[in-house]
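chain below, 307 aa
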Amino acid sequence: MSKLSTHNKRNKEYFATDVFIQKQLKLARMRLEKAIRPDGTIKWSLLPKLLNTNPKIEKSNDGKDYLTTAQSFAPSFSSGYNMCSFATSCAIVCLFGAGHGQRHMMNGENHFVTQARMIRTLLFMEHRKEYLKRLIKEIKAHVKKAKRMGLKPAIRLNTISDVIWEKIFPFLFGQFPEVQFYDYTAIPNRDISHIPNYHLVFSRKEDNEDVALSQPLNVAIPFLIKKGEALPKKYKGLTVVDADKHDMIWKWAEMYPNQQVILGLRPKGKDAWNDTSGFVVDPYAQSFTEWVKYVDNQPFEHDWYSV
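prediction:
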């Protein structure tokens, strides 16, 4: 069995046996069923919007440049559908369980944030025609709002998912040329060179670092660094930038043209802090390991080594 198949099998089993996830999925389906009319159209007033925001997105909305919105599906197999085909251990430590997605943030038996993400996913997978009509309507509304505010519209369609939008809805980017679309991805060899208003950053994981560092996209890495503390300046010889400052990932490409840089992130949520898979990188442990290798390769007769 390949590494990818192993990850997918484990992640599918993890969510299928998670009592909290299965309960919220059941409730999400019940809400969705109530919103479906006999003719198959959707009563959207009963459902969450497709595009919304979160604290990281809000950092990009400084009122000076861009107005950003995003879409949050349910990641990996949490909805029953695999929305992150190249997910590894990140499925377990995902942002899905951080911020407003933390499991204790309940309203009775409902976790409305989790249900909203599941509902969007079910709409996309099972009611795609109605989903697309609504998505276009919400994008148009976002573009108009940005224009009224004198800002440029930006949209992240994959907040905690990894859908290949250039294949699913290839016409979307040309239909909205004024929108800066952007996403993180772990899917190798995605070619968006023909789409000027779509920007991607590659997500490094515990078993794809060679792939991540060998392609032209900038690379995102979560480091075991506390909020407020400085990220390492370099990783594997590449410049590290603080991507927690804002979500405008295309800006880093503009600041460092013709140079691959690392978009450094800090762990979000206790599961990420407890990660031992290698998905979250401890830069100090990495430095120590490399230093030991360096010392071991030095001639033993060096005075500084033999003291």
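The two ends are 49 Å apart (CA to CA). Confidence is low (pLDDT under 50) at residues 301-307.
thats it, cya
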